[in-house]
Amino acid sequence: MWLRFLIKPEPGKALAYIDYSSMEFAAAAFLSHDHVSFANPMLAAYQTGDPYLKFGKTVGQIASDATKKSPGVEQKRDQLKVVCLGTQYSMQALTLSTRLGVTYLEAHEMLQLHRGLFSQYWHWSEDWLQHSLTAGVMRTVHGWQCATGITEFSERSIRNWPIQSTCADVFRLAYVWGTHHGLTLIAPVHDAVLLEAPEDRIEADVALMREIMRRASRVIFNATANGTFELRTDYKIIRYPDRFTDRRGTEVWETVLKLLAERRERQESMKEAG
Q: For 109-126, how does the pLDDT look when each residue is reduced to its tens digit (9 = 90+)?
């Protein structure tokens, strides 16, 4: 994560980091939303604006009146994000307890809470697994396919595949459209894109790319199932001479800078002594 701190715009330029908000959670929610007739709490959680915070409140891990800025909530919310995404892909209690630094029983309870609250997703996931193994192939709406039982037979990978592949379809379409509109896209970063533009045009280019990303998600998801659905995006603009920052890598980045400064001081001392 600290490597992102190396990202810095050139003089006269600005960079924007634009990412899909909770993309994999949203894909899982929407792909499973018509599986049974009752309402989908997973989709409802996404539509609150922060599904991981909503999950925490629903299962009693976060106070009902808390916000992301409330003391201790951000760290808890990040833990619940690991729970939600890891559980979708069959993460087990032992692995989860190691990732979160909690006891095995606490991790087991978190997994059970997810399965109970989002049972609709789990019904769909089980049916997807069985159908994929029976049919011998998995496909996305844009024709990307993978053979099962031959080149792919891992249960975890098969459950993972429709979500990751649908997200890839969305992102590929957004990236192609962005390029066709003349935007300077530096690189894809998981579920985000790094965009460069002159400082006086950065806001307009960000607005255009966010609209493109929104439309791409609507096209792909609405070709997948009934209804109208689209993904939200978040963004961060970095102007010269600032650099990209991420709180998750701040401590490591500061340590690296400290070590480099100490090394430079030693080198200068050696030159003076010599």
A: 989 999 999 988 999 999
Dihedral sign for Cα 206, 209, 211, 217, please: negative
User: Is residue 243 classed as helix, strand or coil in its secondary structure?
Assistant: coil
Q: What is the DSSP string of 37-56?
A: SS--HHHHHHHTS-HHHHHH
Domains along the chain with CATH numbers: 2-243 (1.10.150.20)
Q: What angle do CA 21, 97, 126 make, to 5 degrees?
A: 60
Task: For 68, list phi and psi in degrees, rounded to 5.
Answer: -60, -25
Burial of 94 (0-12, 13-18, 19+ CB in 10 A): exposed
- The closest alpha carbon to 62, from 82, 47, 48, 78, belongs to 78
Q: Which residue from 137, 117, 142, 143 is spatially nearest to 28, judged by alpha carbons?
A: 117
pTM score of the predicted model: 0.82
Residue type, 126: E
Token pair, residue 185, equals: 């896209």
